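re: that chain from earlier
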Amino acid sequence: MKKGILIVSFGTTYKETREKNINRIVDCVKEHFPDYLVYQSFSSEKIRKILSARDNELVPGILEALDSLQKQGITHLYVLPTHIIDGIENNRLRQILQGQKERFEEIHMAQVLLGDKGDYKEAVCAVWEELEIGQEDMVVFMGHGTSHQADCSYKILEETWEEVTGKKGYVATVEGSVTIDQVLGQIKQGPKPRQIILVPFMLVAGEHANKDMAGEKDSFQTYLCKEGYQTKVVLKGLGEYPGIRKIYIQHLKQILEENYGIIL
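^ sequence. v structure.
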C-alpha cells in the first residue's frame, strides 16, 4: 500500500496570496503527514493557462495530478479540497474522482472547510481571533457564492458569526443569491456602524478580493463609501488564518486516521 494526498484548489494568478494561502496549506499538510506523497492541483484551466504563459509555471489540473500519482504507484489516495462550501466546484471534483476511481484501490475525499456545524463555529472563531474589530464596527464578508443550493451556507455563516461574537455580520456574494445591495438594505435597518470592515471569506485574497471587494471602481468598498459608510479593507485570504488551516488538517486526519469520509 502506497498512500498519497492530493490537495485541490481552484487556484489564483496572484503570486503573493497564493504563497500566503494555498502554499501555506500545502506546507502544513506536508509537515503533519511526512510519510505521504503530497501533490497539489488547480481546477481552473484559465488560471493554469495564465500561469503557464505569464510565469512559465506548470500547475497540474486534476486529471494530470491523478496521472502523476498513479505513475508513482499510489494505491490509496486521500483528496483534500480547499473549497469553502460544497458547491459546484466541489461537486465537479467529486464527479471527476468517481470517474477515475478504478485507477486506485481506494479514494477518500475530505470535507470542504464548512462541512458541518462545528466547522462553522471553528471558522468563525479563527477569523474573529485575528481581526481587530471595535465595539461599534461591523464586518461584511465577501463570499464567492454559487448557483448551487450550497449557497445557503453563507446564511448559516452569518448566524454562527452572531452566535459566537454577539455582533451582527453579513456575507455578500459575488456570484451567489445575496448581493452587496441586499446586505446594505439589512445594514440600514439597524444603528449605523462606526466603520464597516470588509473581509474576503475566500481561500485567497485574489481577483475577487482585490477588484470586486476593494477595487477603485464598482466594488463593495466604493459602493459602501458612496452610501456614506466608513470602510476598512482586510486583504487576507482564509488560508492565512492558523485556525482555518487547522480545520483543513482536521478534515484530512478524519479520513487518514479514522477511516472516515467519502469512499468513492
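The beta strands are 3-9, 37-42, 76-81, 106-109, 137-143, 169-173, 195-200, 231-233, 262-263.
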